[in-house]
Every structure is written in structure tokens, then in C-alpha cells.
Write a structure and sequence with these properties.
Blueprint: E1 18-19, E2 22-23, H1 26-34, E3 37-38, E4 52-53, E5 62-64, E6 70-72, E7 75-78, E8 93-96, E9 99-102, H2 120-136, E10 145-152, H3 158-169, E11 175-180, E12 190-197
Parallel strand pairs: 10-11
Antiparallel strand pairs: 1-2, 3-4, 5-6, 7-8, 8-9, 9-12, 10-12
Helix pairs in contact: 2-3
């Protein structure tokens, strides 16, 4: 796992997180951060490296480098043909550490990259279609969403957007924030972004 990986049963993250006055061992920190389960180390193997059950899929693997930093692995750029291509220096979505982070989606037709219409309801439906396509690229769905952020140019549109959103998001909706903004790209009236669990993450 790299030449800088620290060996030993009680190797700690620098600076080690603490519980009271005692540092938390590396395997505890990693288990808490990623859900990796440390295997039982037989007595007498004091020089053996800390070992983890990596059978859990799409978990983030952490290791301590020689500079004392924590390195992060498992970042995937998502490309969904059913969503508009990125209009700038950003990705449609990123899957990392068992989560999906989407870029904010407008009511853009993914084929023409033009606004579906001037109607806020039409734009909201298309934005949700685009989000659904991005989540699907990570084997995720609206049922896996944990956070939604909605940007509106006019809060008077909230009731319309809220009704459409509620019809699509289903039971047990995610946490949500709705914000009024001065303007959105391309003259859009609504933009929606989500964070969701990826399909490969064990839901606990």
C-alpha cells in the first residue's frame, strides 16, 4: 500500500485522533471513517501490518504516507449520456468513498444542450431527469439520495417545483435546502444538485 505505510498493530494517524487522553489506533480511525473491518490479529504478530477485510466493495482505502498525510483512493468521474455535457471545468458527477456528488443540473435537454422551455415546471422535471441519469451511472437512484440543494431565481416558484420534486423523490426523502439566487446560468429558473449513496456502498 505504498512505501510510507506504517506497520504495527497500533499505528496511528498523525496527528492521532484522541478519545479522552488516549490516541485512537489507525485501525479504529479507518474503520470509523470507511467502515472497513479490522481482522483479528493473532497474539505475537507484533511486527505484522494492520490488516483489513477489503471484501466490502467500493470502500475508500486510507493509508498513512511517509509525510504523515492521509491519502484517499477511490474517486471516479461519472459520464452519463442521458445528462447534458458539462458546460465548464467540472464533471457531471463524482463517485467517491461510496457517495455520489452531482453537479447542479438545469432544465437542459441532454441532446441539444438547450433549455427545455421557459416554464419552471418543465425545467424542474428535466433537471430531475438529468440527475437521475447521473446517479444511474453510479448504480444509484433517488431512493439513495441523502441531500438535495435547490436553487430558485424566484421563491414564488417553490410550490410548483416542490410538487414535482415530491412526486419524483418518493418515500423517505433526503435532507433538502432551497435557496433563492439572483440568477442562474443560461437564464434557468431552477437548478438542483444531489448527494447520494452509490450503488456499491453497503447501506448501514
Amino acid at each position: 500500500m505504498g512505501s510510507g505505510f506504517k506497520r504495527g498493530r497500533y499505528a496511528s494517524l498523525p496527528p492521532a485522533p484522541r478519545f479522552g487522553s488516549a490516541p485512537i489506533p489507525l485501525f479504529v480511525g479507518v474503520a470509523a471513517a470507511t467502515g472497513l473491518r479490522p481482522l483479528v490479529q493473532p497474539p505475537g504478530e507484533k511486527s505484522a501490518p494492520v490488516r483489513y477485510n477489503t471484501a466490502l466493495t467500493r470502500r475508500q482505502l486510507l493509508y498513512v504516507s511517509s509525510e504523515g498525510r492521509t491519502s484517499h483512493m477511490d474517486k471516479q468521474v461519472l459520464e452519463a449520456s442521458g445528462a447534458p455535457a458539462a458546460l465548464g471545468a467540472y464533471s457531471q458527477g463524482i463517485a467517491a468513498n461510496g457517495f455520489v456528488f452531482t453537479a447542479g443540473q438545469l432544465g437542459l435537454n441532454p441532446t441539444t444542450n438547450t433549455m427545455i422551455s421557459d416554464d419552471v415546471g418543465d425545467q424542474a422535471r428535466q433537471a430531475l431527469d438529468n440527475l437521475e441519469a447521473i446517479l444511474a451511472a453510479a448504480d444509484s437512484s433517488f431512493g439513495d439520495a441523502v441531500q438535495t440543494t435547490i436553487f430558485l431565481v424566484d421563491l414564488n416558484d417553490f410550490a410548483v417545483v416542490n410538487q414535482i420534486y415530491a412526486e419524483r423523490i418518493g418515500a423517505a426523502p433526503p435532507a433538502r435546502t432551497t435557496i433563492q439566487v439572483a440568477a442562474l446560468p443560461l437564464g434557468a429558473r431552477v437548478e438542483i444538485a444531489m448527494i447520494a449513496l452509490s450503488g456499491g456502498k453497503e447501506h448501514v
